[in-house]
Structures are given as structure tokens and as C-alpha cells.
Amino acid sequence: MKDTDWKKKLTPQQYKVLREKGTEAPFSGDLLHVTDDGTYVCGACDTPIFSSSTKYESTEPGLVGWPSFSDVISKDVIQLVYDDRHGMNRTEVVCSNCGGHLGHVFEADDSPTGTHYCINSVSLAFKSQSKST
Ligand SMILES: [Zn+2]
Questions:
Q1: The pLDDT of residue 95 is above 60
Q2: How far does residue 66's CA lie from ligand 1's centre (Å)?
Q3: CA distances from 54 to 31, 106, 125 (A)
Q4: In terms of pTM, does the model score above 0.85?
Q5: DSSP 57
């Protein structure tokens, strides 16, 4: 899809994060404290990315304030991209299907798997399990 089409489909905040690789302000996201059972899908293309069973409250300094996940639904749904913007060596998490920027992944002791997916709320949409049944 072209940038002009994404601009029509997404909210300005979604566009800034998903297409321009922005980062939402910490503690600003709607999904930070969601604890319901369900699936987190890409906010741009609806591809299922994370299950609620892997969401956890992070205590890692610098990574608190965004939704945290310990694993993805399938390794195929994301691509990992080396990111040295802002003078930091980070690994970007990108939706395999649409190329949307989701967040970054870190090694972290507070994650059950040792892997911390630090994801922007606006890059995701939450599909509650109870609504689909
Ligand atoms: Zn996507």
C-alpha cells in the first residue's frame, strides 16, 4: 500500500508509529493494562501477532510503560530488523505482512522467556476472546 493510502486508513498517531517508526509516549497506550484473554493483532493489517497469554507487566528500567510480551504467536508473523537510529543498537520488530513498525525486542531478565517484546499500543489492536464466541 502507498503512503497516501496508509494515511487514509490509519489514525495520525498510528501512521506516525507504524509507518514512520515513531514511539508512543510511555504509559499513553490503551493496551498497556489490558489483561483480558484474546489476541493482539497488527493495528494496520489485522495479522495476529501476540497472544494475551504472553503479555506481562515489565519491571525493566527504560522498558516500562509499553505493552510487554515474552513471545510471538509465530516467528513468521514478524521480521527483526537491526536499528541503530538514535545512536542505540536495537532490534526493531516489524509486521511481516505489511511492514508496519511494532516496537523493539530486547533481552530482559524480567521476561519469562528472557525475550522482551516492547510494543507500541497504537501498533496493535486487541481482539477479546469473549467477543468472538
Ligand atoms: Zn501488519
A1: yes
A2: 18
A3: 14, 15, 15
A4: yes
A5: -
CA of 89 to the centre of ligand 1 (A): 24
Return the C-alpha cell found at 90: 536495537
| 76: Cβ contacts below 8 Å, ≥ 6 apart | 96
Catalytic residues: 118
pLDDT of residue 43: 97
Q: Above 80 in pLDDT, residue 88?
A: yes
Distance 78 CA to ligand 1 centre (A): 9
Q: For every residue of 65-129, which 3-state class applies, written as one string?
A: CCCEECCCCCHHHEEEEEECHHHCCEEEEEECCCCCEEEEEEECCCCCCCEEEEECHHHEEEEEH
